[in-house]
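In this supplementary section we document a worked example of the pipeline. Step one takes a protein sequence of length 200 as its only input; no multiple sequence alignment statistics are reported here. Step two produces a three-dimensional model, which step three serialises into structure tokens for compact storage. The input and output of this example are shown verbatim.
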Amino acid sequence: MRIGMLGKAVMCIAAGTSSWGARERLNVVIFDYAETPGETLNKAVVITRGLFRAAGVETDWTVCRMAKDHKTTCEIPLTGTWLKSVVLAEADRHAREAMGKALVTRTGEPVVSYVFFDRAVALAKHTGQPIHLVVACVLAHEIGHLMGLRHTSSGVMQADLGQREIFEAAQDRLQFTAQDAQRLRDFGGSRPGGADAAGR
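The serialised model returned by step three reads:
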């Protein structure tokens, strides 16, 4: 996902009907290396969980604080499908204008997704929207890639979205396309891992 000249970002809020959670809940583990304020991540998780629920996928979230002086521990799911998302304080130098990225193996197995917090902050300031909304949108977009989605011409998975779209996201008017929602419900997934990864 890239930022364009007008401060482009991914948008969110989803549609869908049937529940993936009736079969299995999807676990997402966030490793926060950016020392993101707790309220920001908590609000972002609420939005992103609602997005996937509307697409028919029930999710559980674990936030692992990775700061060196942080005392708490987190529990990694030992069974079932889980996906890994990492929040970094600064963007990868190879990421160009991207606000995040996702890595999968060449056979399509999910490995890890990233959120670049500095760029999310910049976009939030540019649009006047809260930082947790932008973080939620990036989380949803990159996790969508881990679940097999590619860029689309509309909806959450657009590669480049402008200021108008992020404002619409703030009004809960943007969504996964119907086709993407179906792909999310069909996702089989696996635990993250594998050295042969390719970025998207």
